[in-house]
Structure formats: C-alpha cells, structure tokens
Amino acid sequence: MIEKVKGILINGRCFAKETPLSFFPGENDRIAIVYGKNGSGKSTISDGFSQIASGVFSEELSASLIDRSDNAIALAAESKIFVFNEKYIDENVKIDADGLGTIILLGGQVDLQADIDHYAALLATAQREYDAAESALEAFGNKHNPLSPDYHLERIKKVLQGDWAAKDSAIKGNKANSKVTEEVIKEIGGILVNETREQLQQKFDETKALLDKVADATTTYPIPVCEVTFPDGFEKALCSLLAKTVEKPVLTERESLILLMIQNGRQSIVEAAKRDFSDKATTVCPYCFREIDEEYRRGLIDSINKVLNKDVDAHKAELLAISFPQFSEDYSNFIDLDAELVKVIQQQIKACQELIAQYEDARQQKLSSVYNPLNIAPVGLESGIQRLNVFLSKLELKRQKFVDAIRQRKAILQELVLINKKIAHLQIEQAYRDYQKQQREMRAAEAKLQTKQKEVNETSEHLKALEQKKSNVGLAIENINNALDYVFFSHGRLSIELKNNKYYLKSNRKDVKPKNVSLGERNIIALCYFFTQILSNQDIGKLYQDEELVVIDDPISSFDFENKVGISSFLRYQTHKIIKGNAKSKILFLTHDLSTFSDLQKIADEMEKSFKKQKLGVSVKGKSFELQGRTLSDPIKSINEYRDLLHMIFNYAMGNTEGLDLAIGNSMRRALEAFSTFIYGTGIAEVSFDPKVIKSLGNHSRYFENLMYRLVLHGESHFETRVYAMQDDLSFYRFISEEEKQRTCKEVLCFMYCLSPDHIESHIPDAIHEIQKWMADIRTNEEFDIIANPKKRIIHLYDIPLSAGLGENILDSDIPFVEYETDVEDGDFALHVSGDSMEPDIPNGSTVFVKKQSEIADGISGAFFLNGEVYCKKLLHKDGKVFLCSDNAEYQPIEVHDGDTLIVYGKIVKVLC
User: Fold this and answer.
1) 39 has pLDDT over 80
2) Could you list the residue range(s) of the whole structural domain that residue 881 is in?
3) 112 Cβ partners below 8 Å, 6+ apart?
4) 834-875: pLDDT as tens digits
5) In the beta sheet, which residues pair with residue 874?
6) Domain boundary, last residue among 580, 599, 633
7) Count of domains observed in the chain
8) 526 and 622: one domain?
9) What pLDDT digit, counting tens, does each position of 504-515 carry?
10) Contact 565, 524 (CB under 8 A)
C-alpha cells in the first residue's frame, strides 16, 4: 500500500484549510527531502503522520494519506509508518540519575518511569500525610492535652465526683459517694434537659421535701380540694341587674307620695302598710289611728299595688335570686402539706369574701330603692376566684402527689435521681460537648490514619509493580550500541549497559553525569533507538523487508558539529537498508537546516546512483522541496539566500545602504543563524557561549562575546533547543543610527571570518581584503578587563514576620530563605525587619546582618527569640530583671519572666535600609 502513497492531506494549526502535499509525485519517488523555515509547518506535518500511524486523531489537526489521484487511502495492516520528531524524542528518551551515574530510559521505559516518578511522588506525599496523621493522632492520646478526649473526661469526673456523687448517694441511702464511671458520664451527658438550673434546683428541693414527708407520713388527705365554681360573666350580669331601670307608673297624688317613700328608701314601710291594710279586719290605721272604711282601705291597697307593680316584683326576685360563692371549707388541715400555700389560699378567700360583701350591700341598696338604678363597676370577684382556684389546683396537685407518693415512694426516688442527673448535666454540659467533639475528631484522625496507611500500602505496592514491570522491559541494547558505534565511529564512545536492572549510559566505559549529557548525544541515542525499534519483532533473516513509510523531522541540526558526519553516515546506511529491503518503502526527511538539507540531497542522489549501478531491480528517485506558504516548491532559491544575505551585509558595511535600513538588522541575525547552523550545527545563542567557539576567537573573544550577547538579547526564538535559520521579525536595529548599523555589519562579518575564514571566502571572496582590514580595529581581551568585584559571600536571608509563633530552632528549620550575596564579612545570616520599634537606627523594612553568638551585652542591638516570636531589640538587665527594649520610645520594654524561653541569635553588625 505504501507504493500508492503520494503524500498527505492535512488540515489544522498552520494549515488553515485542507492542503494536499505531494512528497512522492512520481512512481519511483522513494526519498523526499523538504526544507522549511520556522513556522512553515514541518512539525505539523510530522504530527499528522504520527496521528495516521497511531490512529489517534486530535480536534485541532486532521490528516490522511493520499494517492496519486489525491484520493484519501487508509493505512493497510501490513504497512507501517514510523515518525521521528521532537515529540518522539520526548516520549521515548529520558535521562535520569541515581548514585551510580546516568540512567537512560528508552521507549516503554519512559512511560513506565513517568508512572514510577508519579507514584513515587504520590508515595512520598502519602507517607508525609501518614506521618502527619500519626502525629496528630498521638496528640489525642495525651490526657494532658486539650485535644485528647481523656483530658475532658477527667474534667467531667472531677465535677461529678463532687456534688452529684454526694447527692446521689444520699438519695439512695448509701454511705459512700456514688462512683463516676464512663457509663455514668455517658448517661448524664446524653440526658435531654429543657429546664434551667434554678428550675431544676427548685424541683429537686420540692421533690426531696416530698420524699422526706412520705418517709414519715402521719397525716392523710383523702378528700380532694375542689375549685370554687361560678357561672361565666357572673359579675357583668350582677352589675347589669343592679343598673336596671324599672318603669314608673302614672300615679295620683297619693300614689306619687307612696312612690316618693319608696325612692327615699322607705319601701319596707310601704310593703308593711300593704300587709296591714290587706287584712280586712283592719279598721283603724296602724300609723295614724284614724278609723278607716272599706272603701279607703281598698283604694289604699290599690294605690300601693299600682306603685309596687309586677315589674318591681320581678326585679326584686332577680336580685334575691343572686347566689354568691360559698367558702365554707377549712384548709388548715393542709398546713403540713404546704403551709405557705394554705396561707395564700386563706388570704385569697378573705379577699373574695370582702368583694362579695360589697355586692351584698349593693343588692340590699337596690332592693330598698327598686326604681333607682345602681351603676357600679365590677370589683374583680371573678378574677379573684380564678386566682383562688389556681392556688386550690396547686394544693390539690400537691395533695395528689402526696397521696401518690405514699403509694409510689420508689418512683419519687427515681425522679429525684433523675433531677440530680439533670442538674449534673448542666454542670458538665460544655465539658461533655468538648469531650464528644474531641472523640469525633479522634475517630476522624484514626480513620484518616487508616486511610493514609491504606494509601501508603496501595501506592507502595503499585510502585513495586511498576518497578518490576520496568525491569522486565527488554531492550535491544546490542543493536543500539552497534548503532552508536557507527555514529561515533568509535567503539564505546557512547554506550548503554544493563546493571542492577537499570540501563546506564557510559562514555568510554565510564559513568556519565546527567549534566554532561548533551542535547546532541540525547538525540543521537533517540535516533539509534528509533531505527532499532523499527526492526523490533522481526525475524533476523527478514530485517528491513516490511513495507514502511519512515518520516524523520530534523535529524541532524541539533547535534554537535563533530557528530554531523557520523549522523549523516548513519542515515545513509539506514536509508539504503530500508529502500533496499522493500521496494515499496519510502522515506521523508524534513529539516530547517540548509546544510542538513544539502547532505540529505547527497544521500538521495547517492542512493539513486547506487541502486542504478548495482542493477538491483529497484528504481529509486529522490525529490527535494521547499515548504513555503504551506506549499511545496523548488528549493534552489532558499539555498542561495544565505549567500545573498552575506553580500547584503558586506555592501551595507561598505556604505551601500539605500533601501536596507529596516531589513539590515534581521539580515545580520538571519545570516548568523545560518552560519552557526552550517558550521556548528546549532543556533546563534549556543554558539555565542560555546567554550570551543570562544577559544577559537583567540584574543578577540571578549569583544565578540559581548557583541554576540547583544545580538542574541535582541533576537527571538520559538524554542530554546531548536535552531531557526531564517527569521523575518523586526529587530532593535531600526532604532539605531546608520553608522552604528554599518559598524555592526563589519563586526558580524569579522566574527564569521575569525571563526571560519575559508567559509567566508568561499561565499564572498571579494570581501576578504576589507574584512582583514576591519579585523585590525577589533579590540583585544586586555582592553575589556574590568575591576574585580570585592570578595562576596553567600548567606541565608530569612523573611520572618514578628509574632509568627515559631519554634526555638527557627534558623535550623525549614523556614524559607533566599541565598544572599554580600561583602559583609562577619554577618552569618540576615533578617528582614518588620515594624518601627527600633527606628531611627533600624527602620521598618530594612535588612539586618546578624553575627551568631549566644550572649550579648546590654545596649547592643541583636536578634532574639522569646516564647515563639522573633524580635529585633536591645537587651537590658535592671533591678534583677531582664528586658528586651526598643529604641522607639512609643514601645514599652518587654519583660522576660521566669519560665520564658529567651534565646540570643546574635548581634546585629550591619543595617541596610
């Protein structure tokens, strides 16, 4: 299927639309070399092939293989795509270290090591959290610590062993105080109490008194205490009746006199006269002793009856029908039950009787003058009786309790015990809540410790499993080492050895420190592993026979210059093997380095000639492209661009500046990038500080080092470890003078010439004479000498706020610090000062340098530790006392008491504001 592949259809990232790229347009095209500048899309292309190979696609990028008709084709099962790029290196090669040397991790080991590192970090975190949880739990076991439930249990016991235990024992009739057990504490602490302490105490006293009476009862109360009954609205009805008006009849003169007598309160005389004259035997007036006849007697009776009519009789009947409550019962026999309550009842009865007497007088007054309405307000008899009934109800309740108490003495004892427990509950309520809270926190701490123990165990087991799995991952070490020997053209120059289930990197059979493993060496190992991985799981007799599409992105440009030949040779060897092994296999090279591009073209040309000459039956052609504007084009123009840049720089240096002011700065930097790539295989930033390069610059090294630093400082780069030869961004040169630009052009060409005269002469031979003259003006190293700095030391600078609550060994702990360079000779460490207590000599925010010493004289400023806080003060001994004093008079001296922890850190030897 690979022979059908013309290229790739890609969409995403820098390819804003679906773009077909034909790397193998011809039938015999087997090798494609693509040159592209930064941002041209090479990385996106290699990622597209990676996605096709893995079958895992992202939302930001889509890619598919296309045939010569630009139709999408699927990857066949027997076909394979292998992609070498920066992502492959990051995922398959990792440099690590242990005490023995440098560990090299390849392929699956990288992922396993990442998992191992992840779980090792998780285990360390889990172990720290377990240790912290264990320490936290220990605090709960110390009964002298308020965090411990036992601490609060002891508080509760002390309270209950006093009042509650004594009362409980007395109630039960025991000689010894009741024992306070955890069960008793739990019961008392868990009681629900709604009453106040005062209410419970009153209830306790009453119940205790009742119990005492029951214990020696000589009186019984068989008759219930009844409430006084009266109809609702009694007073209102009575007052309405008294105020009722009886209609007067139309009277004669005699009848009017009779009525007047009644109104004057002499109704009883009128009624007596009626009785007397109603007797037929009465012939003489009993009042005036005058003889009367029958007619006079009847007329008088008629007049009296007319005045005393039925309404009057009815009204009098209503008044006489009024019945007032009776208080005949004697309550004095209840004095032993509750003398105070009986006294209150008797007083209330008397008050009610006095109110009734007022109503009796009013009724008699109305009866005596029935035609005169009597208007009075209620005197409060009803409320008085109601109040009396409340007292009577209380007395009845006490009587019932007393009667019940005689029958239920045991229940009273139990009630009294319960009341005593409720009182005790209120006494220990807060302490019991503290006890329960610390119990919950202790259980939570225990659960957390168990959880953390489980996490430690599970993470540890998982870590062991990963390490075991890693040790079982086999690598074709012999093949990788053979490939490394081929690259370096030296046996053992760089090799991998298995030791203690780890793969160690060796250089000439010696351990290599991780910091000494260059980026180039790392990438060489990755490339060797890449081609070894391609051959994995193949029979030894069928190597390279599988159908493959190999994509290699920037295989050389990041390597050290001395290894470029070896890498090119290795690529030539692998290309030959892959192309020869299967007539359908293809290789795509992507590079941003012009020299690498040229080397790869040579490999392709050589392959084509070799296969043709050997008549292997395989026709091989190589295609070269430039990736520009998201399309593939003829690369010749780009290869010549470097030479054009050098000519432009030389012409500008010679004064031909017209139209070049804005572009010259970037032209210089682009030329330098290309130069460093051609000559050293790295970027301008790396070349500027490479010791070998600086050495090659001889007596002008400091001048050119300074020049290159300024150029790099104003340049830009997309990635630190990648080289971009042609960059089109603006630079700082547009802001400097034309004369300065011309001088810089001369210096750049001198820099290149100083490093590689033959290279510059081959590109701009007409410029050599002028460049040699310019070299005479380059300053020597002696002219760049600067005065040496005073001897500096590194000390710890702590940022410690006052009152931080820190421990005694603060400066030996994990308190954060920064390394501070200073020429203060006797300053052992430094502190930031927070506060104005030592102003003006030591202002707020200043830095003080402290010389360590355990003693300090009075009046000398120093750093002190006192009870968890750090102070900047002066020591003072006065009248047998010790003080820490401030210079600012607004601050009072701090007295150091017996039992306080005072530590002298040292004397302040210098203050920096």
Assistant:
1) no
2) 793-912
3) 105, 466, 469, 470, 473
4) 888 888 888 888 888 999 988 898 989 998 888 878 889 999
5) 861, 885
6) 633
7) 3
8) yes
9) 788 887 877 766
10) no
